[in-house]
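Appendix B, Record 12. Input sequence as logged:
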Amino acid sequence: MRANALLLTLAAWAASSCGGPQGPKEHRPGGPGPAYTVRIWIQSDARLPRAAILAGCGKWQAERITCLEVGTPELAKIRVYADDDACHVTDPRDSADKTVHTYLAWAFQGGDIKMMMLCMPHKDAAYDPKYFSGVVTHEVGHQLGIWDHVPLSCKDKDVKIHSGDGRKICGKAVMNPYYDPDIDYVTDIDAMAFDERDVDYSVLVGDLPKKDTPDCVYELPTP
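Logged structural output:
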């Protein structure tokens, strides 16, 4: 009996000491959805913090997504690359937009994620793992099928309604269009966005054709 009590105490301590805000707990009327395993490949580049990338993908465990690293891109559903192109650029999808953006990463339908290495915080070849992890969490969310960013304002014209409980999908979320250092985890709002994902353009279903132009870009807010 004393041994069992000690085990329960240790389990409670471990659960309370994971640190940081956690994902949603059965926010849906029907409880959590099915479990998935997603194969991820990381380009062999010494600058890419592999542990941080896997941790970023792992944040989606809140939605029963398990990330499994594989050794070749052909076996992967998600592929992470280092991109050394200029990051302070105009929007490649809109020639009329002359605003200069600071892009952190690009997501391409079909599984490719390109990390804009010149704009990610770093010192020499060492990159901030927490920052990197948060950006990867956002980009993986796109690949799961959340191709529309979650509006920060609930007055935004593009706010969606959750089909299960009628709540607005808006507010602080890792799937907001702009990076927020305080939100590097899957929030309840992200979970609702996951429910309303585009299942036809998700790595959780069949293989999707690769695209040459980004479908979503993640950036720093304009000063």
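Residues 34-148+203-218 form a domain with the Collagenase (Catalytic Domain) fold (CATH 3.40.390.10).
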